[in-house]
Amino acid sequence: MEVTPRTYGHFIHGREVPAATGETFPSVAPMTGAVLGWAARGAHDDVERAIASAHQGFASWSARPPYEREKILLKCADQIEARFDDLLNLLIDESGSTIVKARYEVNYAVSVLRAAAGEARRLYADTLPNEKPHRMSLVVREPIGVVLVISPFNAPLALLAKMIAFPLAAGNAVIAKPSEETPLIAVELARTMSAAGLPDGVFNVVTGFGAECGEQLASHPLINGIALTGSTATGVKVGQLAVQSMKRMQLELGGKNPLLILNDVDVREAADIAAVGAFTYGGQICMASARIVVEAPNGRSFAEALAGKAERLYLGDLRDERTAYGPLINERAVAKVARHVQAARSAGAEVLTGGAIHRGLVFQPTVIYNPPRSGPCWDEETFGPVAMVLEAAGLEEMIAIANDSPYGLSAGVLTRDLVRGMTAARRIRCGAVHIGTHSFQSDPLAPVGGYGMSGLGRSGGKYSVEHFTELKWISLELGETPRPF
Ligand code: NAD
């Protein structure tokens, strides 16, 4: 589809505005290399302007009754649905998503806003029993203020929508700093929600680079909380900045996720499930099933079935429903994946299929058998279509391999044996375990987040609302209490 490039602004106080410096940067389609549009390149003055707008927005939005916030968020969802095809097409082009993945994202954005709308009414808190007979104690929940949402490239609409929806429902205002790889879809989301009636200043977007405007936002004393989804390295950096002014932080970071395949499941069916976990969006998913641990004696037969499945994947046009996945996001990502595969190969792993570029930025689906349990391919996020398969003697060893990681985001366990499945679920140290399927799952109301280097806090449903609200104790003295002097 022909897309005419246009120049986008930041989205501040209900309208697009150019960067104060006038600078822009291109948003490039990873599949074709075409420039889709020019985004405003954020810097100091833009940050200040967005923060001033968000504080104004916060003052009025937080004072609205919950049912009004609910009503407006529902209208935002409707408006996204009304613009479904525009958003879908931009998403396909800008992030290199297949039509299937992009459709999922637009639907998810609609769904998460509707799920969040209802949370506006549920800012429950408590009354407390007291030690003093004449005192009454209430606990109330209040929005924290202006929340900075820093989002990644890999689900640039679905994740951004989720990251803003719950803080907004709770009465906060947000400023989003989307990935520099996918700035345009964020501006379009803000425009769409503004057109639906979201008041000015409640959702602002500053586009640009981490080091140029992300750090300024993250360290700004007038930002009250941060929700970041991104790599662990970015999380550490942003966390260090944010703690200087004691900001509330929710960090959803990287993962190296295990999929355990117990020997009561059919290896061909397991291979079909594992392929979705490992190769969706070319493996550029935080929860991708990158380490597949198979119970003996099925290791090799499973790995061969997965390699066969990988070789049959169709890697065509992004708008062709049959296409399994498209390009990686940029040249750097391709080079990293190639480097990881090469390191595993040099260390003695068997590359059963793949291991090279298919075309352009599209990397072949790659299956590695018996990788060494150290080195970049095993230890680091590869963020590419690479599945490592390892055989293990039994459940104990499988759980030990699953836990042999500084990350702890998500896991899958394929088995029909619920006792062994639940044993694994309770003993794997990570934020989510999915029995009967792969590790890449999402639901608007579920708590998403990780153990260890996979992050801090949980996002989704009431868990986000709790995270982005303050608790306040209010007490009432209702009678005569003896005074000490
Ligand atoms: P990234 O860390 O490169 O960038 C994420 C965001 O942080 C971008 O908006 C970027 O501009 C910003 N940023 C980078 N440096 C910054 C700085 N110094 N100060 C402020 N902001 C800064 O990540 P990415 O490549 O866009 O996304 C992929 C990563 O995100 C992977 O590691 C993946 O696992 C992770 N991720 C995690 C989850 C989850 O739920 N845990 C979900 C999706 C992606």
Task: Explain what you see.
The chain has 485 residues and is α/β, with parallel strands linked by helices. It has 2 domains: 6-253 and 454-472, Aldehyde Dehydrogenase, Chain A, domain 1 (3-Layer(aba) Sandwich); 257-435, Aldehyde Dehydrogenase, Chain A, domain 2 (3-Layer(aba) Sandwich). Helices cover 39% and strands 22% of the residues. It has helices at residues 44-63, 66-82, 84-95, 99-119, 158-169, 183-195, 210-219, 232-243, 267-279, 299-312, 331-346, 376-379, 395-402, 418-427, 461-467, and strands at residues 6-7, 10-12, 15-17, 24-28, 35-40, 126-128, 135-143, 146-150, 173-177, 203-205, 225-229, 248-252, 257-261, 289-295, 350-353, 357-359, 362-363, 366-369, 386-392, 410-414, 432-435, 455-456, 469-477. A 7-stranded mixed β-sheet has the order 15-18-19-14-13-20-21, sandwiched between helices. The longest helix has 21 residues, at 99-119. The mean pLDDT is 97. Bound molecules: nicotinamide-adenine-dinucleotide. Nicotinamide-adenine-dinucleotide is lined by residues 150-154, 159, 177-180, 209-211, 214-215, 218, 229-231, 234, 237-238, 252-255, 286, 381, 409, 448, 455.
